[in-house]
Specification:
The protein is an alpha/beta fold. The protein has helices spanning 29-35, 46-56, 74-83, 89-98, 103-110, 123-133, 138-148, 178-181, 206-214, 225-233, 238-244, 267-277, 295-303, 313-318, 340-359; strands at residues 40-44, 63-67, 154-157, 164-169, 174-176, 192-198, 217-220, 248-252, 285-289, 322-326, 329-332, 335-338. It has 2 domains: 29-68 and 158-359, Rossmann fold (3-Layer(aba) Sandwich); 72-151, no CATH class. The protein is 40% helix and 16% strand. It has a 7-stranded parallel β-sheet with strand order 3-2-1-7-8-9-10, with helices on both faces.
Amino acid sequence: MKFGETTGSIFGRNPRQGIGLRKTAEKDPRQELLMKGPKVVAIGGGTGLSTMLRGLKAFTSNITAVVTVADDGGGSGVLRQELGMLPPGDIRNCILALADTEPLMEQLLQYRFKEGNLKGQSFGNLFLAAMDGISSSFVEAVRRMSDVLAVTGRVLPVTLENVTLCAELEDGTIVCGESRIGQHRQFNKCRIKRVYLDPAEVAPLDDVIEAIDQADVIVLGPGSLYTSILPNLLVRGICTAIKNSGALKIYVCNVMTQPSETEGYTVSDHIKALVDHSCEGIIDLCVVNNSFIPDDIREKYRNDGADQVVIDRGALESAGVKIIEGDYASLKNNLVRHDPHKLAEAVIKAALEDIALKRR
């Protein structure tokens, strides 16, 4: 299969075209089918999580996105500091990924101001900030914004507490702040030894634990390993809930390594970091991309300190890790990304097979 080629679907592509408001028309057989889809809990943050959510909503409406709140950079960081609210950026992206909106509405919510004091700020962030101002809680604000945009499933912050993500590098240097960790290569080229939250004891949102308990499949990633996925697992009780859940646990490994976080990492290196920061039994299956990346694209990534993640099958087999390989990547604006539909189809297929096996 050629790089970026689109496969067919076990259900077909999502044909919905909405205006951002829920419809009251007659029952749609497709909607009834989506309501019977597997219960998916997707955990992460950044662009990786929102990319997968765009694909998942074509297969099931039973989606819960659990999003990190450690972001302290860009417009989210400004609103977090000035308004004392949780960072809205990752949550905004997940809401839009699951929304049933016209392209113009999404374009509006993703618009960034180009001048003045609001330069660089996203209108969607301001929308959520305003909703937070008229709501009794941040969770209610997210729910209300989701209702306005006709979101499939729900989006939840992993915790409502104000947290700072910190990293200890291999030379003992401590770097605090999600944005600084993601750029630490600029001033310290040491690898990350571990990440942790300050404060360390952070309570999870009750709805998150409940969703994990009821899930058919729990998906970690794709996304930045240390700054998008692991911050969720560091919240008290999350790892235990995932381990004790009867759901299939899937880790979606990134297609490319990431400067300042995973330079030179293989698939097994990613999984080791996950287990070291959480516990054994948190991953049943790993989804990995094996498509061919054109040499000119790889060279551009190498110039930035990144490359395609190597699938070290021997190490994975020795560690007892099951993998699903496939062409799950696509090329957009000369950037290698997961294809939303192909990735979601792989996740849903694995989930349905697991559900069928458990019912025998």
